[in-house]
User: What shape does this take?
Amino acid sequence: MRPASGDGPQLRTITVGGRTLRVSVRPGDGTLTPLLLMNGIGASLEVLQPFVDAVDPRREVIRFDVPGVGGSPKPVLPYTMMTFAPVVAGLLSRLGHREAVDVLGFSWGGGLAQQFAVQHRRRCRRLVLAATGTGSFMVPAHPRVLSKMLTPRRHRDPDYARTIAGEIYGGTMRAHPERAARALHAQSRLGPRRGYYYQLAAGAGWTSLPLLRLIQQPTLVLAGDDDPIIPEVNPRLMARMIPDGQLHLYRGGHLALVTEAPELAPVVDRFLS
Amino acid sequence: MSAAPRPDGQRAARSVPAAASTTGGDPDAGPERIAESATGLDMILTDAALGPLRRLVPPVSSSLRFTAALARRPRTVLGHTGRLVGEWGRIGLGRSEVTPGAKDKRYSDPAWSGNPMLKRAMQAHLVTAQTATQLVDAAALPYAHDERIRFSVTNIVEALAPSNSPALNPSAWKAAIDTGGRSAVSGTRRLVRDLSSAPRVPSMVEPDAFEVGKDLARTPGVVVLRTPVFELIQYQPTTPTVHAVPLVMVPPTINKFYIADLAEGRSIVEHVVGGGQQVFMMSWRNPDARHAEWGLDTYGQAVLDAMAAAERIAGAEQTGLMSFCSGGIITAMVLGHLAAIGQQDRVASATFAVTVLDQARGGTVGAFLDERSAQAATRASAKKGYLDGATLAEVFAWLRPNDLIWNYWVNNYLQGKPPAAFDILYWNADTTRMTAALHRGFLELAVRNSLTEPGAATMLGTPVDLSAVTVDNYVVAGIADHLCPWQSCYATTQLLGGDSRFVLSTSGHIASLVNPPTNPKSTWRTAPSDVPDADEWLASAHTEKGSWWTDYSRWVAERSGAEVPAPTELGGGGPVLGAAPGTYVFDK
Assistant: This one.
């Protein structure tokens, strides 16, 4: 018998298709479709905790660390969006989910989510794309912002995260840059650098532009009006190109899903219900 | 037991048990025994930093001594090689009567004796292996050189066994025929998978054979404290009353804590909780390059933090400590620190399981640990920021190549079969890193043997004098432990100032710990530990049936204060940070 607090997130380690992933499952009550979260680049699953806490408690929420990030072992071989999507599908099977789940992709995870929605159509019921773009072919961010995204330093060095947070994340980070280091768990989690670069490489040369028309699931595109990484024109374009897409533009920056979770989680809940 | 066999003086070549038998086949070479030899002592840290290859190639100085020693004994060498050539001749003619030792399961397939070609290959290998060992015996090298040369020779000879060859091993052929060639495909796939990432040795368990939190580390409890260094788990009492003094467990700093909390019925934690103890477990963070500076002091302070939390939650002024392997080294130093600042009455009892504090002579390990290689190892880990657990796993495997490499080589690759699922081996494969500073700290302790000398080591700014530690202590060792020889563990009773109870369990490093009362074969020995010499102690010891866990439960209960109603709520009113086994245990 587990003590009362045992209904919190359960961590486990699962090996699928040669990839070992640290996985967290917050149990729900089974009345709602489970929600699978796909995370931003270099971010451990802990980063999404504020969002998970804010989402309807009846919803089962699944998170994982990509290879080499957070608590997952570093990858030996690189992967691409196309080869990693089946790993995620295998992960769902191992967790006992034969039915479709809802998928939320945040930032880098949004790219994976688009790939997953097309490649594993029957495993994905509804799709939420938060603070994400279409990959290599999109209206790019300012080069100054992009150059800072090319290294995992902001995940390793809290002081650095503080100095650049406003510029690259926008929104409330401009006024409270110290919250970025906390939001990124820069103190508590870290993968080896290789994990970050493989994650970066998985998205390099990849684009969802040809995929957008193929996304058949009802899709919510969630984006901030002050997100230096994803200029606003991109989500507008995505929402228009996805056949069953709708746009929700919020006031804020790139990390708002995490830092302003109480405001955004209900938007997601409403869309999924 | 050391990795190298001792000379037994036997010369007749009728049956060949000596050369390879300590590692080659044993009647009970089941996973239990393999697990024993798989894991171990943090003192092999030198090799883990420098890589296992260093061991396979003996140092030039040892090789020179070996050659020189043999050159001084030409007649012996001629005798051995002459007999070898003669035996080869008889093998070629099919007249040799050489048979493998009864315990050698490498050649258990009847084809090895039935097929003339296979029989010759086997016999030639057996006599060559025996001659190689005899030559090492004949050289009569000093201890350290002998260990090194013997290690290399044994490894090379065992690698060349015909049973390891895919072309010769009949079980490989049979598997390929039975599966229509699929075994060869899956064997190759396993080989590629194993070689693609460290540890580059055959896997002893499938990566998904068990699940932590579900099959292992499943005793119910909650995380009551999380620091950057460790999480503290409080276990749910299962008895209506508990002892007032909490018991804090200090696990090894290599591999995860759940060696003390394996599958149901095989968990010391579960057993001790069932004995009415309020048990707290430290779960060390799997450190990475950022934590390079965490040294012995960091880990010592962590033990103090865990004690303080346990005392607060249990509302007690004292704590009992139970430590394992390298966790015991840290615990002993913390006790020295508490004695130095006049606070050792905070500790109700101290337990040291398979812990070596006196490193005077640690078998193979000791022979390979000299100051120069220790420094090289320290530099290597300092450059990286940590010592890699996977490399350490390779080193452990090469300590007993027949049990841990070639056995799985045949099973996984030649026969293409998955290895059997065994919880200890799963735990063993779940490696962790060790910070560079802690690695340096342990090596310095080992090279100078600082804990045997009052004041030679410090903890948190105070000198450590173990003879000033007057806490009652319980010391347990395994009779077949080749990493922490029981005699070295026994020395702890002579180092500490308090009353000692020494208990000698059956089997080796890990299996002596995982020794539940349900095991019908287990026994343990005990005797008063007032004699300085371990072998004298053994002579006076009497054997008890059952597991030492029962004895320990009784011993610690006597030192855990009054019985009070079990707490209805975990965490003592403080925040509860999640369910056991916590989050750190999942970090790869």
Remarks:
- Residues 116-139 of chain B form the longest helix (24 residues).
